Automatic annotation (TrEMBL):
Keywords: Cell outer membrane, Ion transport, Membrane, Porin, Signal, Transmembrane, Transmembrane beta strand, Transport
UniProt-recorded name of the protein: OprF
Pfam family, one: OMP_b-brl
PROSITE patterns from the UniProt entry: OMPA_1, OMPA_2
Localisation: Cell outer membrane
Entry-linked PANTHER family: LIPOPROTEIN YIAD-RELATED, STATOR ELEMENT OF FLAGELLAR MOTOR COMPLEX
Organism this protein belongs to: Aliidiomarina minuta
Length: 361
């Protein structure tokens, strides 16, 4: 079984290297480089691994407990394909006994994606103390540039030989030295037609030949490239709803004001609103506190149930009789104090228009 796995691993890598070579030949304008650098990681040995010491069998420590350190050397053939070889020393931790040693070495064919992620397949030889095994190994990693010449990779690998499955997690630091493949000499430019420097299809004052934003709406102020200029604009809206004496029922006359607030909340989806309830100065403080909370909740229910505003964008609070508009008791003042207050305030980017400029924005 193990010999068959080794043979299939070699075939897999040979096929992969054929693809690498083909990709290198087909991408004659890509950057090539060779790299070299140190590796440092941890190995999680298979739980079935054991070691005999003086006739006693001991298991290896579970988890990523065995230190691996070494060097790697690789060559990148194209923007995507590369091959690398590596060698790691192992300090193996044994549960209940002194630590041992070993090594790992192998070769990987690697494909690099554009976002820094890379994946590879290869063959590996691992020795835990006196036990040697050949593995098929898969790798997944992420590489990022530190400078023009230096990059760092973080990777995870898993390897299997039919009996054991070991895992590796580590990092590598690489110095690149190499060259850029020959590029064909640029062809001389053919004479082009005279540039039309007068046509301005969208009428924004920037001619089409250098307008990077064609089709700008009429009336927008644009920059030198013909693109709309955006400015920050503050938007604020206050809602006040009054209530009858000892009532938390929203009167019909205020539904238009509530709907206006709902429309603004739909236009500005990231805005949240707090609804504050208040009472007049008549009655017990505890009762008025509860009444103010019911009034705030009643307006929230209107926004949620009648105008489909998400409940998690609305909060309520009751202040009872602690924050009157007027600190007195009369028929007119009492009505004004029996209220809820809500404020929507936000800032957004809007196109700068010629009309806004005329008004001195």
């Amino acid at each position: 079984m193990r010999n068959l796995l080794v043979k299939s691993s070699a075939v897999s890598v040979a096929v992969l290297m054929g693809l690498v070579s083909s990709a290198a030949l087909s991408q004659s304008q890509s950057d090539e480089h060779t790299y070299f650098g140190p590796r440092l990681g941890l190995v999680n040995p298979d739980s079935d691994r054991w070691i005999f010491i003086d006739g006693t069998e001991f298991p290896y420590d579970s988890g990523f407990s065995s230190l691996a350190y070494g060097l790697q050397f690789g060559h990148r053939f194209s923007n995507n394909w590369e091959i690398r070889t590596y060698y790691d020393r192992l300090n193996t931790d044994v549960d209940g006994a002194s630590s041992g040693s070993g090594h790992m070495y192998g070769v990987d064919g690697i494909y690099n994606f554009r976002n820094g992620i890379y994946a590879g397949i290869g063959i590996n030889n691992t020795r835990f103390n006196q036990e040697k095994d050949a593995f098929l190994r898969g790798t997944l990693g992420y590489r990022f540039q530190l400078s023009d010449r230096w990059n760092m990779g973080i990777e995870y690998a898993i390897q299997n030989d039919g009996d054991f499955t070991d895992q590796y997690a580590g990092a590598n630091l690489n110095y690149m030295f190499g060259f850029t493949t020959a590029r064909p000499a640029p062809r001389p430019e053919e004479p082009s037609d005279p540039v039309d420097r007068t046509t301005d299809s969208d009428g924004d004052g920037v001619p089409d030949y250098r307008d990077q934003c064609p089709g700008t709406p009429r009336g927008h102020v644009v920059d030198e490239d013909g693109c709309t200029i955006y400015v920050e604009q503050s938007i604020s809206h206050d809602l006040v709803v009054n209530f009858e004496f000892d009532s938390a029922e929203v009167q019909r006359e205020f539904r238009g004001d509530i709907e206006e607030l709902a429309e603004l909340m739909r236009e500005h989806e990231g805005v949240t609103v707090e609804i504050a309830g208040h009472t007049d100065l008549i009655g017990p403080q505890e009762y008025n506190q509860e009444l103010s909370e019911r009034r705030a909740q009643a307006v929230k229910d209107e926004l949620v149930n009648r105008f489909n505003i998400s409940a998690n964008r609305l909060s309520t609070v009751g202040y009872g009789m602690t924050r009157p508009l007027y600190d007195e008791i009369s028929l007119e003042v009492n009505h004004r104090n029996r209220r809820i207050e809500a404020e929507l305030s936000t800032t957004e980017e809007v196109p700068l228009t010629e009309e806004m400029q005329r008004r001195g924005y």
